[in-house]
Design a protein that fits this description.
The chain has 152 residues and is an alpha/beta fold. Helices cover 39% and strands 23% of the residues. It contains five helices and five strands. A five-stranded mixed sheet has the order 1-4-5-3-2. A hairpin with a 5-residue loop joins β2 and β3. The longest helix has 15 residues, at 110-124.
Length: 152
């Protein structure tokens, strides 16, 4: 599946969305999963096409960029120590929300990206699951949760 490299950051300290995104990109780069251009792609796309979602019990973001910047498909996950502001997806009013969980997609195949976005949207509608993702404090807990919900 797309969480196999275990690119996960728990209780991530970030001063803003760009800082959070850069730290996540750095974790993907450290595993040689994305090209050097991935960071710029993520940051530019996030400004043009925001990925913040105002779901309960807290905001979530699903940043992604073009497939040509991906070396090996992966999804990075971060829970934030303190929420950071993201712009709301599909909102022309430039509304900001506090985001506490980030699922960064680094996928090569457009069909995989669509399927994963659909699966993540199902998860985001489940407040209990979101709370469980937020409660994960280490890779073992995270992997157990992924196995239980069929994402591993």
């Amino acid at each position: 599946m797309f969480f196999d490299k275990k690119v996960t950051l728990f209780n991530l300290e970030a001063c803003d969305r760009q800082d959070a995104l850069r730290q996540m990109v750095n974790s993907l780069r450290a595993e040689n999963l994305v090209a050097a251009s991935f960071e710029q792609g993520i940051l530019e796309r996030e400004e043009s096409f925001p990925t913040g979602l105002a779901v309960k019990p807290f905001g979530v973001a699903i940043p992604h960029t073009d497939a040509d910047k991906v070396i090996s498909p992966q999804i990075a996950f971060a829970s934030l120590k303190n929420p950071v502001k993201f712009l709301v997806m599909g909102n022309n009013a430039q509304e900001e929300i506090d985001v506490s969980l980030i699922f960064m997609l680094a996928l090569k195949n457009p069909a995989d990206q669509l399927a994963m976005l659909q699966r993540l949207m199902e998860i985001l509608q489940d407040q209990t699951l979101l709370t469980e993702f937020s409660a994960c404090k280490n890779k073992n807990e995270f992997e157990d949760l992924l196995n239980r919900i069929g994402l591993k």
